[in-house]
Design a protein that fits this description.
Strand content: 35-45%
CATH class: Mainly Beta
Number of strands: 20
Number of domains: 1
Order of helices and strands: HEEEEEEEEEEEEEEEEEEHEE
Helix content: 10-25%
Strand order of the largest sheet: 1-19-3-15-6-7-8-9
Largest sheet: 8 strands, antiparallel
Distance between the termini: 60 Å
CATH architecture: Sandwich
Number of helices: 2
Length: 241
């Protein structure tokens, strides 16, 4: 009888865990993911169909927040080799953006940051030169050297809304609240023209070939949810594509 009770408890716990982690593959065009709470329980994991084995990368996304004091991390990518293999950070208080590559880190100053508006961000890095560049709302940064000049390799764990501190742990100091949309990851360093197309979305921009918002396998955890963009913000020029 005791064994039966233990088995029932095990099934209930598994059922609860399953209900909190919802995995799906969807086209999320005109959709946003809402992060409503400052808790490490809320996050989204993005899944690629392949392991990483490339020497260049571009990450593009749009985020919308009202955070004014905490440093936020909308995008975090880890591999077995590097916990902070490619991470996008933003400090609303100082209006600085930070990029980590292979655990190396650099700050980018003077780029736009708007509260309660969409901020479009792209970051590129090339192992050949070791140089990274950021673009925010069509404003390009200078290029900076970050991390060792080595390719991205291994199984990637891509998380939206949290800073990864371990295989399954996050830091409460960098929780993102707000909306995230149009996340694309490319196995190349996109040209400024292609990035401008993404920023403006006036013509059909190039979709990610490692992770694409239009064909996204993702796992929702906690209270995050997918919503229609026109249910949460006004339409802008970025919504016409």
């Amino acid at each position: 009888m005791k064994n039966l009770a233990s088995y029932v408890l095990f099934l209930l716990c598994c059922g609860l865990a399953w209900s909190q982690l919802k995995t799906a593959r969807r086209c999320l065009r005109e959709k946003v993911i809402t992060f409503p709470r400052q808790t490490t329980e809320d996050y989204v994991q993005l899944h690629s169909n392949e392991t990483m084995d490339f020497s260049k990368i571009t990450v593009c996304l749009r985020f919308y927040t009202d955070e004014v004091t905490k440093t936020i991390i909308p995008f975090s990518l880890s591999t077995p080799t590097h916990l902070a293999d490619f991470t996008l950070m933003c400090s609303p208080h100082t209006k600085q953006y930070f990029l980590t590559v292979h655990n190396g880190k650099a700050a980018f100053n003077g780029l736009p940051f708007h509260l309660n508006q969409w901020n479009s961000v792209c970051a590129t890095w090339d192992a050949g030169s070791g140089l990274a560049q950021m673009f925010v709302n069509e404003v390009p940064s200078v290029k900076k050297a970050i991390g060792p000049k080595e390719a991205f390799k291994g199984e990637a764990k891509v998380i939206l809304g949290q800073y990864q501190t371990g295989p399954s742990s996050f830091s409460p100091d960098y929780v993102f609240t707000g909306f995230i949309s149009d996340v694309h990851v490319y196995k190349e360093a996109l040209s400024p023209l292609l990035i401008k197309n993404y920023m403006e979305a006036k013509i059909k921009f190039k979709l990610g070939d490692f992770i694409s918002w239009r064909n996204l396998k993702h796992t929702l955890a906690g209270s995050v949810q997918v919503e229609e963009r026109n249910h949460v913000t006004f339409y802008t020029k970025q919504d016409v594509n």
